Amino acid sequence: MKTPPEHGRREWSIQEIARAAGTTSRTLRHYQAAGLLQPSRVGHNGYRYYDGACLLQLQRILLLRDLGLGLEEIGKVLQGRTGPAAALHTHLAVLLEERDRLERRIAAVRKTIDATERGGQLMPEEMFDGFDHTQYKEEVEQRWGREAYAKGDRWWRSLSTRERQDWLEHSRQLQNDWVDAAASGTAPDSNEAQELARRQFHWLAGANGGQEVGYGYFTGLGEMYVADPRFSANYGGEAGAGFVRDAMKIYADRHLA
Amino acid sequence: MKTPPEHGRREWSIQEIARAAGTTSRTLRHYQAAGLLQPSRVGHNGYRYYDGACLLQLQRILLLRDLGLGLEEIGKVLQGRTGPAAALHTHLAVLLEERDRLERRIAAVRKTIDATERGGQLMPEEMFDGFDHTQYKEEVEQRWGREAYAKGDRWWRSLSTRERQDWLEHSRQLQNDWVDAAASGTAPDSNEAQELARRQFHWLAGANGGQEVGYGYFTGLGEMYVADPRFSANYGGEAGAGFVRDAMKIYADRHLA
DNA sequence: ATGGAAGTTGACGCAGCGTCAAGGTCAAGC
DNA sequence: GCTTGACCTTGACGCTGCGTCAACTTCCAT
Fold first, then answer.
1. Of A106, A112, A146, which is closest to B96 when you measure between CB atoms?
2. What is the DSSP letter of A190?
3. Which residues in chain A have their CB less than 8 angstroms from residue B122's CB?
4. Tens of pLDDT along B219-248?
């Protein structure tokens, strides 16, 4: 009593529809497990067989998948709990946001490539195009926080030329004063050093574009001055940088803790 | 012999750097497991401690992660096996391709929304804007394959107005002939029916924009004519659609197997 | 001493299948 | 009737980058 292969066959094996629809048998089993597509018949041996209606359903699933919908959403649409248009509208919003993020990321990558190719270092030393940045390394340090990197850039570009010059001048002054203080043998907890730390703090707060400069961030920065030779060099070597770090730490303990 | 909390502390607990860098302790452990960031010291109790150099390293990792690089790539960059610029260039290419796919997907979703909102059905019945499509339903059927959906659309838009009219006329003729043949009681394997199947095949091949029309695709389409009432209606009900399907199947067996 | 905050390792979860692994079925050729 | 090879089954791990318990241990302050 076997079913002879008749002329107008109306069902196919799993591989056959898979190929017909341009997908794989694994995917079909997955869809079944997800409750999206049941075989029209299952043989006594467990083999799955699919008919035209299944193929139709499968095509719908694949169409929606191609548009990027998740299997769960697709399930809702298929069983009519959600209109296709509504689901797609929701999905479209997600896609648009995704695109925005991608665009921003692409821009960021491009800028970082630019910076590293010119500067040779991973962390951009040369974000300030129009200036002779070899003279102004310090400001770079301030943007090492990762959010600060992105936000700080917007902040910087929002400034006028005059404001930028002021800010750079300010930073140079600050660095010089640090070096002087370190060289003069002042203690990190002296009034002099603490005043410098205070200036450093407010200068940073201004540069962070509304981003709060917290205890961890401030002291962390101090540590990095010591850890990174490119920076410590600007502060008179490890010793000088250590002095800056200590002073900043004390300031943080007193005012930010 | 405990280490007293001295003035210039140079290391922090896992939570402290995590907060300072704007991430979580779990992430730090993950990076360690991934070989990206080792604590500067591990206490006898298993506690992890990190110093300034670690913080520096962490910032680099987070910067790259923000740009979308995978941890593996980041690892290569950090240990100098890949230049940052090179890695970012590669990554940029990926991002650009990703953006392309996203754009296409967005366009497709928009069109599908349009179509379903006007047509009410998920499968777009109205892809042919300028025409009185209520008269031309058949062509829609041909684009059910999912790649065909996207590619077929580009194909269609690449045609001139004249070519479109020809194609539509052709499709209408074909449908009428099918209906006539079915009504006249012709057998599916008759010369007449097989000639219609041949026309159907070539008409499809033309419509698929270079996409091959294989055995599975062709027979599957026939099955769908029967399974979907919207289509079978156009072929004189289930009986007529069954006739078309059978004829297509025989044609496929003879010429596409 | 004790309670609460913070640390540890271990392991599951997620999205959508790809990809073995180990074994049953089926049609065909000898 | 037996072997071969193609195709089928279920089961389970893998991938990405952590989030999120769970079950304990340690540290610090009262």
1. A106
2. S
3. 60, 63-64, 77, 84
4. 767 776 666 555 566 666 677 778 888 898
- Name the least confident of A98-102, A118-122, B149-153, B182-186: B149-153
Identify the CA nearest to B56 among candidates A12, A153, A197, A222: A222
Interface residue A114 vs chain B (CB under 8 A): no
Q: Closest Cα to residue A96, out of B165, B106, B252?
A: B106
Helix H or strand E encompassing A12: strand A11-13
Residue B145: per-residue pLDDT: 36
Instruction: Report residues 5-34 of A contacting strand C, contact meaning Cβ closer than 7 Å.
Output: 24, 26-27, 30
Q: What is the pLDDT of residues A28-75, one digit of tens each?
A: 999 999 999 999 999 999 999 999 888 888 888 988 998 999 999 999
